[in-house]
Fold this protein.
Amino acid sequence: MRQLVEIFRQTLGTLWAHKLRSFLTMFGIAWGVGSLLLLVGLGEGFRSGNKKQFDELGENVMFIWGGRAPAMNGSFTSLRQYYLTYRDYKDVVAECPDVGLITPIIQRNDVRAVSDYYQSSGQLMGVPAALNEIRYLPIGQGRWLNELDISQKRPVVVIGDEARRVLFPGWPSVGATILLNGMRFQVIGTLKRIGHGENNTRNLQMFVPFSVMRENFPPLNVGETEDAISFINYQPRRRDLHETARQEVHKVIGKNHGFDYSNPDAFDEWDTIRSVDAIGKIFDAMNMFLGSVGLVTLGLGAIGIINIMLVSVADRTREIGLRKALGATRRSILLQFFAEGAFLTLLSGSVGIACSAAVMALLALLPQPQGFDTPRLVPWTAILAICSLSFAGIVAGLYPARKAALLEPVEALRRE
């Protein structure tokens, strides 16, 4: 123990005697560790921000709208517009075993809402009660639609946060009534604010029972299509079955509307699962690239420590010779130079980790742009940094230390 304390004292003395050299060496390692953690942390901030945006839509949600199909099978020049119908929804429920939850939706953008205080316009959505199991619709006050609202065709409405703020500025909204194109509806619930910034489209949405919407506000501009709906939201029974579920839905719609379901251009759809996976692969590649940049920087810092320690061995050749002549063993010489290299690496690495954590904490205090989350320390990069530091410390300390320990006392004392 006493020997270790003495070695540590000598190490600090040597580093202090060469302050500038020690500082520059430590700066290289600290910069490498800090760069590695900060770059990957920023990448994770982008990943987390994009994931939150998708989570605000719903978990594993898939959209399908009406599209354009060939007027005749095999034709690529003549296309006809088709619209989804309530029959499509019922057939998907009956014939698609890999589809879990599914909801038909009617959407109108021309319905004006009028309260006792103000008026507003936004998207009016006719939805089943099960929509909140597919889509992210957090209730702020009151309640969501239920099955009795649908079956009894109750004139009730759930409004978004921005619609509540516009229609009832400073007044209670739950229990009040509004007019939708002259038809009176009771507000039974309000939604919490979704997202941030000036994107208020979703917060202006209003939701009424699908049966009421179907009867009083059917879709516009659908030609002669009977019982048309605007689009369908659905989820696969399991996340890994989303492609199978999508093909099953294509088969039903292709059969009902008379075209080949294998033609992908005939469908207007959005598979958020595929989008999330694609974005995840991009961020994985970005993390690998950023991590590689950080590791290269860290490696350059480790090379700098090895170089500095070799210079230190050369500068202290006579000192090493004198100590060995006075009885110092190879082991004690080896341990001293190894301790110097390892201490430099450990201290500078700790400074790099602390600085990167401080920068991330400061960034967390700033307003975050949409699609970007606060950068954070990623566990696997911290572990990678620690392992890399350990390896760099061993190499940076052991090689120069071994070279110092192998010096012969007579040869060392002879050198100038």
User: Anything to note?
Assistant: The chain has a mean pLDDT of 81. DSSP finds 13 helices and 14 strands in the chain. The CA atoms of residues 174 and 187 lie 5 Å apart. Residues 2-55+277-414 form one domain.
